[in-house]
Amino acid sequence: MATVQLQVEGMSCNHCVNSIERALQTIGASGKVDLAAKSVSVHYDESKLTVEALKETIEEQGYDVK
Ligand SMILES: [Cu+2]
Predict the structure, then answer these.
(1) pLDDT digits (tens, 9 = 90+) for 20-45
(2) How far is the CA of 26 from the centre of ligand 1 (A)?
């Protein structure tokens, strides 16, 4: 398992936190959002997922990943 810290723009409330954490869950990753730091810490299996796939999943929810 690997962990990556992503900088994400546009998250403002619990709704954002939930939609990102839920979307990551659906692809088999587990994410923890830090609203104040505008970051998402994602724990994932690097044999199944890439950082690029994690970014796309978050972007599909309407947020910008730096
Ligand atoms: Cu929100």
Answers:
(1) 999 999 999 999 999 999 999 999 99
(2) 19
Identify residues whose C-beta is under 5 A from ligand 1, the ion: 12-13, 15-16
Confidence (pTM): 0.95
Q: What is the domain count for the chain?
A: 1
Domain that holds residue 27: 2-65
> Residue 38 is part of a domain; what is its CATH number?
3.30.70.100
- Name which of 5, 12, 7, 16 is nearest 65 in CA terms: 7
How far is ligand 1, taken at its centre, from the CA of residue 46, in Å?
28
- CB contact at 8 A, 24 and 18: no
Distance 47 CA to ligand 1 centre (A): 31
